[in-house]
Amino acid sequence: MANIADRRVLRAGDVAYGVVPRGSGGKLDRRVVQAAEAALAERRFATSIDVLVGLGWLEPRRVDDWRLGRIPYLEAAVIASLGKTSTAMKVFRQWAAARGLKSSETAYVARTRDRRPLRFSKSGDEAIERAYRTHWVSPELSERRRARLAERQSRPPELVVVSPLKEWTCSRCGSEDGGWLIIEDPGPVCMACADMDHLVFLPSGDAALTRRAKQNSRLSAIVVRFSRARKRYERQGILVTEEALEHAEQECLADEQSRAQRRERDAARRAGADLELQGRMAVEIGKLFPGCPAGRAEAIARHAAQPGSGRVGRSAAGRALDPRALELAVLASVRHHDTEYDELLMSGLDRTLARDHVRDQAKAVLDGWRHG
Asked: φ, ψ for residue 45 (rounded to 5)?
């Protein structure tokens, strides 16, 4: 793959490629390029947020807080200094220009009732804000598809209703009923004060019913709840009008058989795509580690790319066959199968200490595979 080759060139320090500017920061530049390449491979466009999240400087849950209007500007949630953030964004734009990507300015508005514009920078400077708002789109997309993408990205986001974990008080009526809330200035607002208490809740689970109910509803909102385990907001369902839900239920009953047949065809197609990804991943692992037995490379790829697992093979970098992601998958396999790591965990040893204990063992196996 061309993207993989490009990243290998970058690892060799070849500034002549043109993506990393001569005399720039080296390791940071490579990390910026890797994050941007992974986003581009997955969605055909890359954004500043993709890069900041990919660098580990911005947590996805903090992006959610920002979109919900809980953070005044995005840079407040970035753990890196403003200087490092500015450098990373400069490298990102230089990479996009060298790759020949098309710029597309996108509107960012909050998921609040007032749909106010979201702010990125501490200074609020318009040039900086515009740079953050700009998406970089693959030139392989046709003009028509780029226009559709820009329209979709600029579309106002859906309203978000929060199912709170803690007690709260409505900023308008002072109610403490503990129900759902929506974020407004100057604080949380109950469903009655938001004029949304006439909506009914449809739990997640039936995609067709959810899609049709939302299409038929004049007013709708997503219901989310924060997961302490996963450190992010997770979708619980939607709020729609009662009439829209009834109409959607009738539509779903009318074509249940045809939808079941389509689900079977889609499942077969996804299974084929998953097998193809695992095959390509096993080939790339063999290239990175020539000494790795073929059967072992296939087993690692199958495990890492298992659908729904959340493992590294299902990440954007893994699906793009990024060498670093594949190395992490191989390292995890070696740690579990070729060292005493699992036994140490069973004995009650802390995970970090257990990894330190087997680091040399794992490195020896990887070095042997890497050099054949």
From this structure: -155, 160
3-class DSSP assignment, residue 136: strand
Closest by Cα among 288, 327, 270 to 304: 327
Would you list the domain boundaries of the chain?
A: 2-154, 160-254, 259-370
CB 33 within 8 A of CB 19: yes
What local confidence, expressed as pLDDT, does residue 25 receive? 54
Positive or negative: CA dihedral 361, 315, 228, 208: negative
- What's the pLDDT tens digit per position in 82-96? 999 999 999 999 999
CA angle at 235 for the pair 232 and 239, rounded to the nearest 5°: 140
Q: What is the pLDDT of residues 99-149, one digit of tens each?
A: 999 998 888 988 877 788 999 999 999 999 999 999 999 988 887 887 787
Whole-angstrom CA distances from 144 to 44, 97, 100, 149, 151 are 14, 21, 18, 9, 11
DSSP β-bridge partners for residue 223 = 161, 237
Terminal alpha carbon distance of the chain:
23
Partners of 161 in beta bridges: 223
Q: At 187, is the secondary structure helix, strand, or coil? A: coil
Q: Dig out the tokens for 156 from the structure.
A: 């106002």
Dig out the tokens for 310 from the structure.
Answer: 């959340």
